[in-house]
Amino acid sequence: MRLRFSLGEVAVEAEGVGKTPGGFRLLGKEVRVYAPSPARFFFRHGWQSWSLASWVDLAEPLKPLLPLKRRPQADDPWLLSQKAHWGSGLGALRVGEGVLLLGALGPGARVLGTEDLLLGRSGGQEGWFLGFGKEEEVFAAYSRHLPRRLRGKPPRVWCSWYSFYRDISEGLLLEALEALQSYPVEVFQIDDGWQRALGDWEANESFPRGMAYLAERIREKGLRPGLWLAPFLVTEESPLFRTHPDWLLRDEEGRPVPAGFNWGLPLYALDAGNPEVVAWVTSLVQKALAWGYEYLKLDFLYAAALPGAEGEARYRRALEAVREAAGEAYLLLCGAPILPSLGIADGLRVGPDVAPYWDNEDRSFWLADPTGPGLRNALRTTLHRLWLMENVHVDPDVVYFRTRYNLLPPKAMRLQQAMAWITGFKATSDPPFWLLPEEAEALRRFLEEDPKVERLSPYRFRVGEEGVEYAEVL
Ligand code: 9PG
């Protein structure tokens, strides 16, 4: 079948075709879209928050991410094992002056790109969106076909991770809270480090008065308490690991599915398809709400969807139950499969972690891994997911203002600050007592101001009076 777009005709193979705003809707578990002329660049969309989303050059050999084994943190493991350019949920080709985009309308889909073909495969029945036109317009048309949840403006957040990492305590956080008094921050978010273990979600000995006590102190200062949880992860240290071996996600041979490796321990996933697990996770969320937290950063969520696209429908059902249990609480989803989180998340991390340095070349270059912490990786993938801004608050991760414990050049810090202004999601981890007077002033201005943003081209913006160019990041 041939479909007519203003840029030309496109041949497709699908079980059904219909018109839809901005393009066509294709039906079928496997669909093929033939590029009208050979393409050089493929829009490769990674599976979850930290996975690479970027245009890739089809003329260059595919660089496998090394080591392939035991890296489910990086992407849908199936994508990483392929010898061809596959992406998660959607894919696009640059064809002549335009972009040809094939995007799934339901969970569980992958798209292959070659110089003359987009091949979509999906486990579901929802079908596909096909668009062909100007890059920004085609992505915008696709995003309008996806679930959305937008409640007001994104909150202004202070998060403990990127200054103190896991080395947090009640005393230290109270100090940071005190210091933040005169800044227009709305959420004070406690990150990883408060819990006894992954899967054992009680305050550890660094929080002697418990998590409800801290939430109260935060609220007293006029801020909204926020808390980090990785609700579907468990390690051998947790009592849960012994009391409920039946709750672990397992492969066909009955072996626990590896969910990554971090903090010196192998990570395991809870089986989100098990109603008892979902009940346990929703009661965990309610426990955090009862302590007084109303902003939850739910992290490492890919674990609930392993082994990859095949687990997305299961993930979505479990997250719908979490959404329901959370009521009006703000859910920031992180390490999360992107498309199946839409309509559920209030905020969504759309890139790898930032870090107080630009790039770790040992990892990004020599191990060909673009998913590790670093400002360059974070900016690259975030830039390629800005089209989700009509669906969810897009979280580009925190902005640095400090020069203490920081290797970032000022220019890189400004690029990240502009990105926060572009998305409207303004967060930092800097405790004011680490800031020089002029840095404190810069943080204050960042939080107070919302400059007008204009997108001049995919990588160029006008933010207030300033022109901001991201092409060099790529
Ligand atoms: C807390 C952090 C912060 C951060 C999250 C997430 O091993 N890994 O591949 C890996 C990736 C990301 C990561 C940690 C480990 O960071 O994005 O903001 O909350 O967890 O542990």
Description of the structure:
- There is one protein chain.
- The chain has 474 residues and is α+β, with helices and mostly antiparallel strands.
- The protein has two domains: 142 residues, no CATH class; 318 residues, TIM Barrel (Alpha-Beta Barrel).
- Helices cover 25% and strands 28% of the residues.
- The longest helix has 17 residues.
- The protein starts with a strand and ends in a 5-residue tail after the last strand.
- The chain binds 4-nitrophenyl alpha-D-galactopyranoside.
- 4-nitrophenyl alpha-D-galactopyranoside binds next to strand 20.
User: In CATH terms, what is the fold-level topology of the largest domain?
Assistant: TIM Barrel
Architecture per CATH nomenclature, i.e. the level-2 architecture of the largest domain: Alpha-Beta Barrel
| Percent strand | 25-35%
Distance between the termini: 37 Å
Bound molecule kinds, no repeats: 4-nitrophenyl alpha-D-galactopyranoside
Number of strands: 29
**Name of the CATH first level of the largest domain:** Alpha Beta
Number of domains: 2
> What are the low-pLDDT stretches, counting only 5+ consecutive residues below 50?
none
* Oligomerization: single chain
Global geometry: globular
Topology of this structure?
Layout (H helix, E strand, L loop, with lengths): L1 E4 L2 E6 L2 E5 L2 E5 L2 E5 L6 E5 L7 E5 L19 H4 L4 E4 L1 E6 L2 E7 L4 E6 L2 E6 L5 E6 L1 H9 L12 E4 L1 H4 L5 H11 L6 E4 L4 E3 L2 E4 L6 H11 L3 E6 L3 E2 L4 H5 L14 E5 L2 E5 L5 H17 L3 E4 L13 H15 L3 E4 L13 E3 L11 H6 L8 H9 L9 E3 L14 H14 L2 E3 L8 H12 L4 E5 L2 E4 L2 E4 L5
Parallel strand pairs: 14-15, 14-26, 15-18, 18-22, 22-23, 23-24, 24-25
Antiparallel strand pairs: 1-2, 2-5, 3-4, 4-13, 5-12, 6-7, 6-9, 8-11, 9-10, 10-13, 11-12, 16-17, 19-21, 20-21, 27-28, 28-29
